[in-house]
Structure formats: structure tokens, C-alpha cells
UniProtKB/TrEMBL annotation:
Protein name per Swiss-Prot or TrEMBL: Uncharacterized protein
Domain of life: Bacteria
Keywords from the UniProt entry: Membrane, Transmembrane, Transmembrane helix
TM annotation in the entry: 12-31, 37-59, 71-92, 112-134
Source organism: Clostridium cavendishii DSM 21758
Length: 139
């Protein structure tokens, strides 16, 4: 009987599913019209989803060969630079302007955490897409 293993590319895409759910929960939590009980239920469901995908990843994980390691190293370097540049840009958008002790920002303080989660999710997707691209090309 053949054991069903997850390839590295599938593992990377599966890692994005709990993060997408986390992004949705954070976005719903920022909306004022959602009740506190809905936020609690969504948080519990999110924890269950994250635990499920963590166990699934541990159970069906495939060993990484040398070419996948080199591709992951290249992709991780690209993603690290992407995170650094996006945080620098993000820092300029939230830096306060002090005009007569009035602090104004381009992004409301309420949404700073949401934008950080969006950046983390986009970098995770970029990692999966770049790995698939480089793996297909054989680089």
C-alpha cells in the first residue's frame, strides 16, 4: 500500500490555509459591527484549523532533497528581502507627523496589526509560488 506524502510544494500551499483563516479572523475582529461572541467562536475555530493543519503537516511530511533545499534557500532569501522592504515602506506610512502635538498617520492605528498580517500572508504565498516556479524550471 502506497503511503500518501505531501510534496514540498503542497506543504507550502497548505501552510497558507491557516494563515488565510487567521487573516479573515483578524479582519473580522477589526470590524465594529461584529459581536464579541462571534469573535470568540471564530478564534476557537481558527485554533482548531491551525492544529489540524499542523498535525497534517507532521504526519504526511516528505523529506526534502538537495535541490529542494537549494531552491528553498533562494526563495527564503527573496522573501526575507521582501519582508524587509515592505516593513520599511510600512514604517514610512505609519510614522506620525507631529504638527503642534497632533499625531496623524496615513494608516489608522486600529489597522496596523491587520496590515502586518496581510504582509505576512502575502510573503507566505510568494514563498509557495516562487518555490513552485523555481522547482518547475529546475533552478
Amino acid at each position: 500500500m502506497r503511503e500518501n506524502k505531501l510534496t514540498v510544494k503542497k506543504q507550502l500551499y497548505l501552510q497558507s490555509i491557516p494563515w488565510l483563516f487567521f487573516l479573515i479572523v483578524v479582519a473580522i475582529g477589526k470590524v465594529d459591527w461584529v459581536s464579541e461572541s462571534v469573535n470568540i467562536v471564530l478564534t476557537v475555530v481558527m485554533a482548531i484549523v491551525i492544529i489540524y493543519f499542523f498535525v497534517l503537516g507532521l504526519k504526511k511530511k516528505e523529506t526534502i532533497d538537495e535541490s529542494a533545499k537549494s531552491i528553498l534557500a533562494k526563495v527564503d532569501g527573496i522573501c526575507l528581502h521582501t519582508i524587509i522592504y515592505s516593513l520599511i515602506i510600512f514604517n514610512f506610512t505609519i510614522s506620525p507627523n507631529n504638527n503642534n502635538n497632533v499625531v496623524t498617520t496615513l494608516i489608522p492605528v486600529k489597522f496596523i496589526g491587520l496590515f502586518l498580517v496581510i504582509v505576512a500572508y502575502l510573503v507566505l504565498l510568494l514563498r509557495a509560488i516562487l518555490f513552485g516556479y523555481y522547482d518547475k524550471r529546475g533552478i
